[in-house]
Structure formats: C-alpha cells, structure tokens
Specification:
alpha/beta, 2 domains, binds flavin mononucleotide
C-alpha cells in the first residue's frame, strides 16, 4: 500500500467531495466577531489567507447555534439569518482559492457564562459551574433537548445556504455535546442518560437531523475528545461512539488529541490515541487527528499512527502556508513576534488573544 502524504487528495466517502490535500486548519477561536456574532473583515481575511496559502480544509472558529450557547466575547454566530451576508462572503472567499470550508457548530452548555447569555446555563444535568450566577447549570427538559437538536440542524442548513462545503459538529472539549456524552456531567435517568447509547443519543440525533436537512454532498464532520475526564468520557466510550457515528454515515471523524504522542493509558505497552482508533475503526471512515503537529516528523508520525488527514491549530496561526512550508524545514515554532503574526494576517485583537496562550507571542 502506498503510504499517505499530506499533498495527496482524498475523496470523502459519504459526500464524495474531493479535498485537494489532507491538511486541515482546525477550528480556532479568534475573538474577532462582532457582539451580535457577525463576521468582521479581520476574521474573513485570516481564514481566506489559509485557503489561499494551501490548506485542504479551512474550518471556522466555534460558532454558536443559539444565543444560550454563546460562551465568550467575540464568538462567531450561526444562530440567525442576520449572519448570512458575512457567512456568504466568507464561504465565497475560501472557495475561490480551492479549499473546502467547514463551519464548526457549537453550544457551550454549562460553560456559557450567565454574564454573557443573561440566564443560568443549561446542561444535561445540574452540574457545578463557575460560569453560572447560581454556581450550577440547570438540567434541560426533554422538550428543550428536542429544540437544541433543531438549533444544530437549522444552523447546519444556514451554513449550507451560505455556500459552505460542510459543518463540523463540536462534540469535544467539554461543551454541551460532551456534557451529554460523559457519565459525570450526564446523570439523567431518562432516554438521554444512563447507558452509553442513551448518553450518545443527543449527538446521534443531531447527526440524523442534520442529514435530513442538508444536501447529500454537504460534508458532516464530528469532532470529539477521545477522553475527557472532567465530563467522564473514556477512550472506550469514544470508540463505541465512533462506531455508531460510522453507522450513521458521516464524512470525517476528528480526534482532538492536543498532543498526538499522548497514549491511551500510562502503561509501558500503551499506544498513541490515534493508533488505537485507526486499529479499531480505521478504513471505515477518514480519521482526522490534531494536536502538536508542527514539522515533517510530526506529519510522518501522524500518518504512521493511521490518520488519514492532519489538523493543525497553532502551526496554522503562525504559518498560513503550513501545508507547503512543512516540507521545507523552515517551520519555526513559538514564540512569534507581533510583526510576524500581523504579517500572517492576524489582527491586533487576535494577537492579544494569542498572548494568553503561554509562550506563543514574544514579550
Ligand atoms: C487560539 C486557539 C483557539 C482554539 N479554538 C478552538 C475552537 O474554537 N474549537 C475547537 O474545537 N478547538 C479550538 N482550539 C483547539 C485547536 O483546534 C487544536 O485542536 C489545538 O490547538 C491543538 O492543535 P495544535 O497543537 O496544532 O495547536 C483552539 C486552540 C487555540 C490555540
């Protein structure tokens, strides 16, 4: 079998979309949207540059599907048709350079601060959260769960109407979908909690509803955290969930690893997370892995682990042309000067935000 390479195109088995290469700009919050969630020219410019400079997929930042899920200032919105003009412009400016575009659709659940949303945040159960004015989230009623599924589906439809190639459902990092997936944050005793299948149901229903809503050539990706202890999500849960997602029919399974060398457990015989997933479910769905990929060795390692596509966050912030630059060896790591980041089309707002990421911006 020919070994995989970053420059190799890939056909997504469900939507049949052909990606020009296997590099993906992962979702990156950049705080540049307006208070109402509309896109700014700064945000469009930074994403367009990554399309122009060669990424196969350009993903937007996490975008809230409903105001109750907005979790930080400057977050992108896909909750209303008022967002359409900006979204249409963004999709067009990504497409003109030959990259595929995904919007990451998101609800923060218990992590949406009362200060921002004006209410006690919702979750799968009553959970302790500093973001809430009461110190706790409230547990969603069954009718409300139904509505939330619909918010995701309507948002996906809006993204399709706006001309995007697809969406990525944000099921990772402890936000609303993760809160449903995990045993610690989901202690429901109805059809939405308890057994694995019941905990998975919220995400599975979102996938089903979106599939009913959007055209068949619209990409559906799902991002998960393979394990997330504060929600009570284990690797075994995520493998089982991945099999269910394969059965549902999605285009891409995105593993958010933060560090692709991380192992499934501490033992001496432990294997990396992506290796475990590719051994168990590889070949049945394109696996996208992200976390700590900077140079050519990292690229080789990720493909060796069995990934089909590679995502980058920080390397793509610093190097808009990362997909081609990675093969030149001229691929510097942090810290970066404000000037370098400005030349990479980051606005002062985004650069200020990156100062919060330890060691990324030079003092
Ligand atoms: C500034 C910044 C913003 C991020 N925003 C998001 C986001 O909106 N949605 C998401 O799923 N992950 C987000 N992440 C995680 C990245 O997508 C990525 O998984 C992470 O940075 C690890 O990859 P890297 O080592 O290549 O940076 C963010 C990361 C950074 C550094």
């Amino acid at each position: 079998m020919r070994s995989k390479s970053l420059n190799q195109p890939i056909v997504l088995p469900r939507s049949k979309i052909v990606l020009r290469n296997r590099s993906v700009l992962a979702a990156l919050t950049n705080k540049q949207s307006r208070e109402d969630g509309t896109l700014t020219q700064d945000e469009i410019r930074w994403l367009e540059r990554r399309a122009k400079d060669g990424f196969g997929i350009v993903t937007t930042a996490a975008a809230f599907v409903h105001p109750s899920g907005k979790s930080w200032v400057g977050e992108l919105g896909v909750h209303s048709d008022d967002m359409l003009p900006g979204l249409e412009e963004l999709s067009e400016r990504i497409r003109r350079h030959g990259a595929a575009s995904l919007v990451q659709i998101f609800h923060g659940g218990m992590r949406a601060p009362t200060d921002l949303i004006g209410e006690v945040p919702m979750s799968s159960s009553v959970n302790k959260t500093e973001q809430s004015s009461t110190g706790y989230s409230r547990s969603m009623g069954e009718q409300e769960i139904e509505e939330a599924i619909q918010w995701f589906a309507i948002a996906a439809q809006r993204c399709s109407d706006a001309g995007f190639d697809g969406i990525e459902i944000h099921g990772a990092h402890g936000y609303l979908i993760s809160q449903f997936l995990g045993t610690k944050t989901n202690r429901r005793e109805d059809e939405w909690g308890g057994s694995r299948k019941a905990r998975f149901r919220f995400l599975i229903e979102i996938v089903r509803r979106i599939k009913k809503t959007v055209p068949s050539n619209f990409i559906i990706a799902v991002r998960i955290s393979p394990s997330y202890s504060s929600c009570g999500i284990t690797i075994e849960d995520s493998l089982d969930l991945s099999r269910d997602l394969i059965d549902e029919g999605i285009d891409i399974l995105h593993l958010s690893c933060w560090d692709i060398s991380k192992k499934i457990h501490d033992g001496p015989d432990a294997i990396p997370i992506t290796t475990e997933f590719s051994r168990k479910i590889g070949g049945q769905i394109p696996i996208l892995t992200t976390g700590g990929i900077w140079d050519e060795d990292d690229v080789s390692e990720a493909f060796l682990q069995g990934a089909d596509m590679l995502g980058v966050g920080r390397a793509g912030i610093a190097h808009p042309d990362w997909p081609s630059r990675v093969h030149t060896g001229d691929n510097t790591r942090p810290p970066f000067t404000r000037k370098q980041l400005s030349e990479a089309d980051l606005s002062p707002v985004f650069i200020d935000y990156m100062c919060r990421w330890d060691g990324f911006v030079e003092d």
